[in-house]
Amino acid sequence: QVKLVESGGGLVQPGGSLRLSCSASGTIFSINAMGWYRQAPGKQRELVAIISTGARTDYADSVKGRFTISRDNAKNTAFLQMNSLKPDDTAVYYCKADIVTGWLLSPSDYWGQGTQVTVSS
């Protein structure tokens, strides 16, 4: 069984910063891409940033230059450094990881439970 746990959310003023963490645990053989998504009230869940095993990254246009995704493969953990936060960044942030749980098995997507980020003065 695999579990993803996010942490680091909270309330921050516009222009502030937060650092989210996503830790994967359980029966893990390997982890492919890891990504951060967010869902604001009344809106669909959207991709924020994604990072491959080789550390190749991609970002939503709305966060380019402000957010940075990274990962520590030895610790099965991904991070999202969020700077210059805006009220529009307010959402529940979810981590997703593409995980292989055994030799010769196909990868499956696993999601965390989400962490609330609120940007408000």
Strand and helix map with partners:
Layout: E1 2-7, E2 10-12, E3 18-26, E4 30-39, E5 46-51, E6 57-59, E7 67-72, E8 77-82, E9 91-100, E10 108-111, E11 115-119
Parallel strand pairs: 2-11
Antiparallel strand pairs: 1-3, 3-8, 4-5, 4-9, 5-6, 7-8, 9-10, 9-11
Keywords:
4-stranded antiparallel β-sheet, 7-stranded mixed β-sheet, mainly beta
Question: What's a quick, concise take on this entry?
Answer:
With 121 residues, this protein is an all-beta fold. It has strands at residues 2-7, 10-12, 18-26, 30-39, 46-51, 57-59, 67-72, 77-82, 91-100, 108-111, 115-119. The model has no long low-confidence stretch (mean pLDDT 97).
Fold and architecture overview:
The protein is mostly beta strands. It is built from no helices and 11 strands. The protein has strands at 2-7, 10-12, 18-26, 30-39, 46-51, 57-59, 67-72, 77-82, 91-100, 108-111, 115-119. The strands form 2 sheets. Strands 2, 4, 5, 6, 9, 10 and 11 form a 7-stranded mixed sheet that branches. The protein has a 4-stranded antiparallel sheet with strand order 1-3-8-7, with no helix packed on it. The protein is elongated. It starts with a strand and ends with a strand.
Low-confidence stretches: none
Multimeric state of these chains? Answer: single chain
Distance N terminus to C terminus? 40 Å
Helix content: under 10%
